[in-house]
Amino acid sequence: MAITARPTTAKRTAYPRPRIVGAKTEVPLFGGNHTRYVNLDSAASTPPMVKVGRAVEEFLPWYSSVHRGAGYKSRLSTHLYEHARDSVMRFVGATPSTHVVVFVRNTTEALNLLAHRILLEPGELVLTTRLEHHSNLLPWYRRAHELVELTADGRIDLNDLESRLKKHQGKVRLVTISAASNVTGLLPDIRRVASLAHNYGALISVDAAQLLPHRAFAMGALNDTERIDMLAFSGHKLYAPYGTGALVVPASLFADGEPMLVGGGTVCLVTSSGISWATGPDLEEAGSPNVIGVVAMATALEELMRFGMDRVAEHERDLTKYAIRRLQDIPGLTLFGPAWEPVLADGEDRLGVFSFNLAGHPYRDIRISRLPQF
Ligand SMILES: Cc1ncc(COP(=O)(O)O)c(C=O)c1O
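Structure tokens for the assembled complex are given below, as produced in the milestone run.
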């Protein structure tokens, strides 16, 4: 069964576009002029939504430690913190009865944590790909791993993936892949990768740092061959730059074992004769968590769900086409990665992430003096 993302309702399409903090900020240019700043760096980090900033302001008087106090503020903070896990579950289409949400600082920490929990038996390995951000590459360098090759035009080579799965005959424990490239905007067919991985007895984890801000997404149910087993993302790429991200995993992965960081909150009992570790997300949320970051991220996810991710995608597709046309008009500019014409012709879906060279111009020069006309 194919996994479909959340449906749009007529009611949702009436919801106003979320506003961004600093959208009208003027910045100085060389030569003394000022211009309205257009943020072309959202693939790296987004500004906060106005609603997110307000939610943080409103929460501050109620802020207290979570899971540690019986006072009113502590109970309220704990409630909001735990409730935020539901927002994440709904945003990524995960099943609360089978999965847990662990709050971390960002995608990088989420993937390091995942690499810590994936304990390989002798002979087992992880497959990652040559398309990955370092955050989904370097944690696996600490484990037995192989890299899936790319095709000549820079896409994941699914034949290479399948032949490696075949070659290792059930020994591939995990296939881990980015759902969207931060360099070319390519959207690998992660559903096909998921079903290949599952057919050969492997799990699949997805680095969704780039995808989630742009497309509706559903991890899917445990019995679906196209499901995504584990997912990592960052709040600062989703209009909540307050230092929180999440790892969503099957609860079974956190049922036992020792945590990556040990300390307060990770145990049920400590005696002189031993330690009884906590289970579920508590096991990997050592110390006092970033409650404000979690409240901010949940607010952003709720706001995006109210607005509708399909509307976000539609708007982004228009902007992407506009950007391709304008970039192609600049003499001496070479866009890297596969050709963008299929995107212009609605023959391929791709994020509006561009890597390019402008002949004879160092990148700092381009950033300041060449792009204000956007
Ligand atoms: C595809 C991808 N994965 C992972 C990351 C790392 O995210 P963070 O810096 O929030 O940990 C990024 C950041 O740019 C990214 O684009």
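The CA atoms of residues 4 and 317 lie 19 Å apart. The longest strand covers residues 172-178. Further analysis is deferred to the final report.
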